[in-house]
Amino acid sequence: MPRTHENYTIIEDEQRSLEALLRSPKTAQSLVFRAEIILLTASGKTVEQVASQLGTTALTVYRWRKRFKDQGLTGLQDRFRSGQPKKAEVTGLWMQPNGVHGGMNATPSTLLAVGMRSCHC
């Protein structure tokens, strides 16, 4: 059975917070995308219209609407993911003197390859 159009409303404080996320240049793009979903659905657009406008699926729109409805702004944040953290860390190679891993004359790809070998990734 298809879902019916639900009037999706948010309170004024939530709307101001979501709009602030959109304007901030330091907001992660994944969070901006989720905030856009909420604001567009709150403006009266259907799930299909929002999905089409943002280039995503209706399932994604439903998912983020539900998380926002259940948890508020914190529901739009990424959840903790289990697993081993990334190991690759390339730091300080640019400052090594010439002759050691290429030093300041090395290309970025050379330095990256040296860094990847040294971290045993």
What does this structure look like?
The protein is mainly alpha-helical and 121 residues long. It has 2 domains: 12-76, Arc Repressor Mutant, subunit A (Orthogonal Bundle); 88-121, no CATH class. The chain is 49% helix and 0% strand. The relative contact order is 0.10.
Brief descriptors of the model:
single chain; 121 residues; 5 helices; 2 domains; Arc Repressor Mutant, subunit A; 49% helix; mainly alpha
Q: Return the CATH class of the largest domain.
A: Mainly Alpha
CATH-derived architecture of the largest domain? Orthogonal Bundle
User: Radius of gyration over alpha carbons?
Assistant: 22 Å
Beta fraction of the residues? under 5%
And the CATH topology of the largest domain? Arc Repressor Mutant, subunit A
Count of DSSP strands: 0
The separation of the N and C termini measures 49 Å
Mean pLDDT figure: 79
Oligomer: single chain
- Note the overall shape: globular
Which class of secondary structure composition applies to the elements?
A: mainly alpha
Number of helices: 5
| Number of separate structural domains | 2
Short description:
The chain has 121 residues and is an all-alpha fold.
Question: Which secondary structure elements does this structure contain, and how are they paired or packed?
Answer:
Blueprint lengths: L11 H12 L5 H14 L4 H8 L3 H14 L36 H11 L3
Helix pairs in contact: 1-2, 2-3, 2-4, 3-4
